[in-house]
Amino acid sequence: MDSQIRISDLENVISEKVFIKIEKWNLYLGDAGLARHLAIECISNKDQGPSEAAKLSLKAINVKVGDGVNSIPLINLITNSQILELEEILESFF
User: Fold this and answer.
1) pLDDT value of residue 94
2) What pTM value is reported for the model?
3) Which helix (H) or strand (E) holds 67?
4) Among 38, 44, 56, 62, which lies 20 to 30 A Cα-Cα from 79?
């Protein structure tokens, strides 16, 4: 149960603070339905440390585009400042 609470807590923070950047448009991961998946990936990579866990997790998640035939790694849709934001979030959780 403790890990479920932790996943939910991490998911909530990611939902509100981390977003995908497309041109001048910001889509928060909570609105995109990606926050929980990212929280789970980050927790599974926590032994790597916050910085590496963030990068590995963002690379591991593929975001379907269009009809879902094609996908793009989440790390390609996130700005460097958002990667740093995720690393800071993970530092507080790990």
Assistant:
1) 86
2) 0.91
3) none
4) 44
Q: Which amino acid is at 8?
A: S
pLDDT of residue 1: 43
Long-range contacts from 88-93, C-beta under 8 angstroms, 24+ separation: 88/50, 89/10, 89/13, 89/14, 89/17, 89/18, 90/42, 90/46, 90/50, 90/53, 90/54, 91/50, 93/6, 93/9, 93/10, 93/13, 93/42, 93/46
To the nearest whole number, what is the mean pLDDT of the chain?
Answer: 93
Counting the structural domains of the chain, the total is 1
What is the rounded distance in angstroms from the CA atom of residue 67 to the CA atom of residue 23?
21
Residue-wise pLDDT for 27-38, tens only, equals 999 999 999 999
**Backbone dihedral angles phi then psi of residue 62, each to the nearest 5 degrees:** -105, 130
